[in-house]
Design brief:
The protein has 5 helices and 6 strands. By secondary structure, the protein is of the alpha/beta class. A hairpin with an 8-residue loop joins strand 4 and strand 5. Helix 1 crosses helix 5 and helix 4 crosses helix 5.
Length: 195
Amino acid sequence: MKRLVLASANPGKLREMQALLAPLGMEVVAQGALGIAGAEEPYESFLENALAKARHASRASGLPALADDSGLCVDALGGAPGVHSAYFAGREGSREERDARNNAKLLASLGNEREAHYHCVMVLVQSADEPRPLITEGDWHGSVARAARGVNGFGYDPLFLVAQRGLTAAELPDEVKNRISHRALAAARLLAALR
């Protein structure tokens, strides 16, 4: 497998996955570059959504497909926004507008308890009907800052304070984030399984 389709329209995820899979010499192609629309994500679990996205992209492209479903889980909010992270404050507007609204809603929802973690479930299928998909997970623990800081990353990265670093995910250089993030941990487990 030298070429696979990434079941995501998120340019931040594409950049991260291309960097994370580079050691295997894989060409990662965004589903949009192949004219594939995003899959519905109607499920209440990261695993079910990731499987749906991977199977959809593989079926439409005829290629192996990689998908992840991930989100920020905040203890004080009972794990929310969780699987609804991308649309926590609604579906209207551009990705940047949604991110800004999501971050504002998150800040408005919290008091003093701010522990949180990012969770990622990554799924690789060789074909749409793969009976045994490769599934890995990763968690990245931290807390929610009181104000946005940093310009790197996307989503909740400006608010996610990385445990024991004193920096938000958006303040980390890409090469650091791509070693320690939830997505990096899930990808490292995926690469180990592929080797």
